[in-house]
Amino acid sequence: MNAPLKILVVEDNPDLAANLVDYLAAKGHLVDAAGDGLTGLHLASTQSFDVILLDLILPGMDGITLCRRLRKNTGMAAPILMLTARDTLDDKIAGLEAGADDYLVKPFALREVAARVLALARRARATMTHSPLRVADLCFDAVTFRVTRAGRDIALPPIPLRILEALMRASPRVLVREELERAVWGDAPPYSDAVRAHLHLLRAAIDKPFGQPLLRTLRGIGWQIASPDEQSRPGVR
User: Fold this and answer.
1) Which of 97, 107, 162, 164 is 20 to 30 A from 226 (CA-CA)?
2) Residue 36 lies in a domain
3) In sequence order, what are the beta bridge partners of 174?
């Protein structure tokens, strides 16, 4: 049996909030709720939660602003699952850039919410004790979560960080979509655009500021992180 989690639901739709609270509480979890962004900010800043469910559109303070403030101003590390009716790639990238760990588009099944919550909590509680990973001038320390390239520190949201770790551990092997999803999300794979959105953020952080790209896409096959002399396969971009 999974240990009970302390969960914060920040959702302004009272019916949906009640359904989430009741369903998660029935699973044995301790659930608090906030109906607006300012109350959510106060609760998340003054209490400790294992996972936060955060609606994108909220009165008082929108979910993007709230997520960004929790990550940058308070340093809160609890996983954040963004809930929204918006499903464009730009909206998803905005939420991920603000610091969200995962994304669910409404309407969703309560069973899926519970599965995502458990997966996020398991990953957050996992202790990594591996040696630093290196590919060319890119380095990832899985103990301190520090990423550098050419000696420059690189800040990454949690999911792109896990994608980076999976690709660097496999390097120079190519990971197909199913392998990458399993390494990052376990048995709760995300919506269809999640991988593409997270890889967009990862590529912008580790490749765009530098002269030589290390993250490669093999069309119709998968992705790899490899040094320039290992990027010789045709069709790689």
Assistant:
1) 97
2) yes
3) none
What is the extent of the structural domain holding 25?
6-125
* 142 shares a domain with 170: yes
- What gap in Å lies between CA 41 and CA 138, rounded to an integer? 35
Give this prediction's pTM: 0.59
Give me the long-range contacts of 178-181 (CB less than 8 A, separation at least 24).
Answer: 179/222, 180/222, 180/223
Residue 235 lies in a domain: no
Same domain, 99 and 200: no
Checking DSSP bridges between strand 30-34 and strand 175-176, what pairing results, if any? unpaired
In a domain, 1, yes or no: no
- Evaluate whether 40 touches 34 at the Cβ level (below 8 Å): yes
Tens-binned pLDDT, residue by residue, of the chain (237 aa): 456 889 999 999 999 999 999 999 999 999 999 999 999 999 998 888 889 999 999 999 999 999 999 888 776 778 999 998 877 788 888 888 888 989 898 999 999 999 999 988 887 776 444 568 899 999 998 778 899 999 999 999 888 998 998 899 888 888 888 888 877 877 677 766 788 899 999 999 999 999 899 999 998 889 999 988 877 454 444
Number of compact structural domains in the chain: 2
